[in-house]
Amino acid sequence: MARLVLGTVCLAAPDRVLHAVGSPDARPVPIVRILGGRLVLQAGLDVALGARTRGVDVAVELAHAASMVLVAALRPARRRPALLSAAVATGIVALDLVEEHRWPKQGVPRGCVSARRESTRAVRLSP
């Protein structure tokens, strides 16, 4: 869910996202849109394929975080937005790992409200 919300915001209002994170200018707008598209695509795959995407999700987010740390080191003017992006990616990894801990082998698809509702309903009906 975090990917979908963040991705949608990045696609819909990239200039506002850049302003909120303290970007010195609007040149990265296309990059923010690409990032938003990637996040929305990942969220869709999470819903469609469930927990099978978790390992790839974590790898992609960690790669993004590492690339942003590199940008922060090499481009002082972009340090703040790059480090914030790295922190958000790391936070999404933490959410993925928490989700893995909550639903380790049950095969409940991430983001699939109906599957979780059925799982909860089954628990309530148990004696």
Can you describe what's shown?
With 127 residues, the protein is mostly helical. The protein has one domain. 76% of the residues lie in helices and 0% in strands. The chain is built from six helices and no strands. Helix 4 (54-74) runs antiparallel to helix 5 (79-102). The protein starts with a helix and ends with a helix. The relative contact order is 0.14.
Q: How much of the sequence is in beta strands?
A: under 5%
* SSE order, one letter for each helix or strand: HHHHHH
The structural domain count equals 1
CA-to-CA gap between the ends? Answer: 32 Å
Q: What do the pLDDT scores average to?
A: 84
Q: What is the number of E strands? A: 0
Low-confidence stretches: 113-127
What is Rg? 17 Å
The rough form would be described as globular
Largest sheet: none
Instruction: Give the quaternary arrangement of the chains.
Output: single chain
Structural class determined from secondary elements = mainly alpha
Helix run count: 6
Q: Helix coverage percent of residues?
A: over 70%
Quick overview of this protein structure:
The protein has one domain. The chain is built from 6 helices and no strands. Helix 2 crosses helix 3.
Describe the secondary structure blueprint for this structure:
Elements: H1 2-12, H2 14-20, H3 29-49, H4 54-74, H5 79-102, H6 113-125
Helix pairs in contact: 1-3, 2-3, 4-5
Jot down its keywords:
127 residues; globular; mainly alpha; 0% strand; disordered C terminus
